Amino acid sequence: MQLKPAKLVNILFILFFAVVLPVGNMLGWVSINSISLWGRYCCFAIAALGIDLIWGYTGIMSMCQAFFFCLGGYCIGMHLLLKATALQGQALPDFMTWNDITVLPAFWQPFHGLVPAVVLALLVPAAVAFIIGYFIFKSRIKGVYMAIITQALALSMYLLFLRNETNLGGTNGLTGFKNLLGFDLYKPHVKLGLYLVTLAMLCLSYWACYKMVHSKFGKVLQAIRDSEARVGFTAYRVLHYKLAAFVMAAMLGGLAGMLYVPQTGIITPGRMDVRASVEMLMWVALGGRGNLKGAVIGALLVNCVYSYFTSVFPQGWLFILGLLYILTVLYFDKGFLGLLEKIGAGIGIKTNPERYATGSK
Amino acid sequence: MLISAALLLIVALMELLLKINGIKSGKQAGARWVWPVLLAGMVLFFAIRIATDSSGTYIQNLFSGISLGSILILVSLGLAIVYGLAGVINMAHGEFLMIGAYTTYSVQLLFTNVLHVHSNNWFFIAALPLSFVTAGLAGLLLERLIIRHLYARPLESLLATWGVSLILIQTARSLFGDLTAVKLPEMLAGGWQVTPGLVLPYSRLFIIGLTVVVLLAVHYTLTATRLGMQIRAVTQNRSMSACLGINTRRVDAVTFFIGSGLAGLAGCAMTLIGNVVPDMGQTYIVDAFLTVVIGGVGKLLGAITAGLGIGIFSKVLEAFFEAVYGKVLILLLIMIFMQFRPRGIFPDKGRAAAD
């Protein structure tokens, strides 16, 4: 049986992360902390897939993906915190007691159960994205204006979440989680399990995005990216397609946040500031825009480099990040994968050029 | 607080309904009187508040709003000119503000520690042109090294200049530390006592005055000089200007110098009312971008209206609500506003402006 190189890469990827890392952990080569770290990176990769969908394929630069990420994270965080307080026999989370709140706010009520929390973690970002997206796309805000409006939105929501009055923990965020479905979150095998679930969700999201991008729907999205006006002239409802892509990106962000919080044990507003959103865009740009593999690889790669540098050379990380931004934009338009392909073409490996759809925007 | 929120919401909803009705029935005329009425209502509302307010806090708020708006105008003016000309979004623009502020700080150090000038007025007078030039040169360097390659690719320039801003912030942090402050020059200390309860600080009056002077200078440059004519020509049609013998690269460079210099000037003014911190530019950049969005691209009058509007609105809303809710409310208002005027307050008219 002949394997295409693209398939081979997929299989190698899954083999490494689903088999080699866990087995390595059982044999004691890989510490559980680094497994958990990879789990978090996988969450980022899911969020990056969402960005690739909206930016790489539809050509809309959304600078509030980190906000959707945090919405998902806060939803599951509220559930975990309620469980933890119930375990300690308290009625209210600590920070509420400090803020002189006596009754659990109404919007916390649905989060007692895990199922509603999970559903809401997907639905809340989707609903918010739907409302915002509807108004933005309807008034034909696009390009730079879209980027600025979403950026301002991310900033104001960040400021809102910093407040104590929103009853979401203020600056400190939500933390002090104990267990999920009765499993202790700090046990190694639970961490491993969470990692595997995250990896599975990453593969699932990748597969779903892949199917979507290669369907007719995905082709219309790419057509919108390349020439929105012409798509409109051909009687496609551009608004609907853009809105659908935006909502799906937000849901991917929410999913990523939902998986992220149990693994880190904390969610703060700091995760959703403007810088976080721009960083998410950068993962995609670095890995290769308009290419789903690029988004995943970019997210994993940048975060690896980040962990490495912040431990070795903490002062220099921002310099390196800044330089990466500049160099990518100036010289590696197609990102890391584009670079690999160029090198591959240089030494004579043929790849499928059709996969690299790059727009002018 | 709740009453005011409800009031604003009702006004916005009313307007939305009116506008939708206007569109549905195919006539635009129905909406034409809405903005003036809205504005008059607001003015009346605030006038009543001010008249019934004996302690002068509302005038104080209005005044701080105007001075905040002045800084926003200074920052966003350069941003708007540069975006109109080159089609790039300069996320590092806020860092030119920071550079201007640190220039002022360095000049102060130089005057007190090296030159031993006793009066601390002179350093500020020297710092004003110096901060303009330093920030301008930094902008020129940025344009030559990076932005030149990114003309008419706004979204990518946004990412690259974001990288630049990270580098600049980190550089400032390692050079100057986390928090520094410039001493207020003696001539700007104190304030103008209007009534017993109302004092208008000289520093803020100075900022407003500076903005007026700069606006007049920019207006003069853009409308009455050869350079200004060239800038406007390149903004309208780059290739046609090049065909007619305008050295567009020189125009780009000079415009970048002026735009960044204006931000540097704003940074110098900022030292009068706040601390000097490495990421001070970041707090203003989003507001400045919103100003550009509302004011329209490359429009002096638009930038003035939008800057003042956002400045006054934030301060006044901050007085009614908490500062944060003011910000969220402003964003909400802007999004509603964008529904009606997606291309700014004073959009270009005609087919060429459509895309």
In short, what is this structure?
Chain A is mainly α and 361 residues long. Chain A has helices spanning 5-26, 32-57, 65-87, 94-98, 114-138, 143-162, 188-213, 216-226, 228-233, 238-264, 274-287, 292-312, 317-331, 335-346; strands at 174-175, 179-180, 183-184, 266-267. Chain B is 74% helix and 3% strand.
Overall description:
The complex is a heterodimer of chains A (361) and B (355). By secondary structure, chain A is an all-alpha fold. Chain A is 70% helix and 2% strand. Chain A has helices at residues 5-26, 32-57, 65-87, 94-98, 114-138, 143-162, 188-213, 216-226, 228-233, 238-264, 274-287, 292-312, 317-331, 335-346, and strands at residues 174-175, 179-180, 183-184, 266-267. In chain A, the strands form two sheets. A two-stranded antiparallel ribbon of chain A has the order 1-4. Chain A has a two-stranded antiparallel sheet with strand order 2-3. In chain A, a hairpin with a 2-residue loop joins strand 2 (179-180) and strand 3 (183-184). Chain A is globular. Chain A starts with a helix and ends in a 15-residue tail after the last helix. Chain B is mainly α. Chain B contains 14 helices and two strands; from the N terminus they run H-H-H-H-H-H-H-E-E-H-H-H-H-H-H-H. Chain B has a two-stranded antiparallel ribbon with strand order 1-2. In chain B, a hairpin with a 2-residue loop joins strand 1 and strand 2 (198-201). The longest helix of chain B has 30 residues, at 57-86. Chain B starts with a helix and ends in a 15-residue tail after the last helix. The chains are: A mainly alpha (361), B mainly alpha (355).
